Structure formats: structure tokens, C-alpha cells
Amino acid sequence: MNKLKDTDIQATIGWVLRTGVILSIAIVLFGGAVYIYRHGHDIANYSTFKDESDFAQLTGIINGILTFRGRAIIQGGIILLIATPIIRVAFSAIGFLFEKDYLYTGITLLVLLIIFISMLSGHTG
Questions:
Q1: Is 84 helix (H, G, I), strand (E, B) or coil?
Q2: Cβ proximity of 105 and 97 under 8 Å
């Protein structure tokens, strides 16, 4: 069996980061093109606030993407960009586990747990 090397894990993590960023950029640009195609002729009215609460929940974003709404597609790309470093931390934990480095696996899983608790609680800093 081929032993997994540290450089292989670093290459995989680098690939995950590059792919996540490039894919999110492509999604945001595509969503921007859809938005401009549909709303490029609209005149902006800054005197009143227009509520976009349908994109405040993940289900609203998914429904907006499925109905081909530009703002939802852009927001989906931004969520992917935010999720990319979180996925990197998860891949790091898997890499440390394969290397049998249990101290760093535990530390990485603790960091991942802190990230998820922060996301679910809504508290920052």
C-alpha cells in the first residue's frame, strides 16, 4: 500500500483551496451576468429600502438558484467562498488522521467545532 506523504496532503489541500476559489468566482460572475441580463435596464431607487429577506435563509438561496435568480446565484458563490477555508480545515483533520498525528487531529477538530458553534450561534469575535 502506498504511504500518504505530507506533500501529498498539502497538494490536496492546495487543490481544494484553488478549486473552491475559482469555482466561487465563476459562480459569482455567472450570477452577475444573469442579474445584469434580467435587471440591467432597471433604475436604482435608493430612497426606499427594498427587503431581500427571501435570501436570508439557505432554503431561500437554494430556491433562488433553482429559479435562476441572479442575486441568489451570486450569494451561493459567496457562501462557497466562505465555506472553502472551512473545507480546508476539514481536509487538514483528515490528513492529520492519516498521518496518525492525533494531537493535531484533535486540535483541528476543535477548531472545526469552534467554527460550527460560531456559525450556529451567530456570535462573532
A1: helix
A2: yes
Query: Cα torsion at 98, 102, 103, 106 (round to 10°)?
Result: 90
In the chain, what are the helix, strand and coil shares in percent, each to the nearest 5?
A: 75, 0, 25
pTM across the whole model: 0.80
User: Taking residues 21-50, what's their average pLDDT?
Assistant: 91
User: What is the torsional sign of CA 105, 113, 62, 123?
Assistant: negative
**Can you read off the three cell numbers belonging to residue 113?**
467545532
80's CB contacts (< 8 A; 6+ apart) are 20, 23, 24, 27
What pLDDT score was predicted for residue 1? Answer: 45
Question: Can you read off the three cell numbers belonging to residue 5?
Answer: 506523504
Give the cell for residue 95: 490528513
Q: How many CA atoms lie less than 13 Å away from 81 in the CB half-sphere?
A: 14
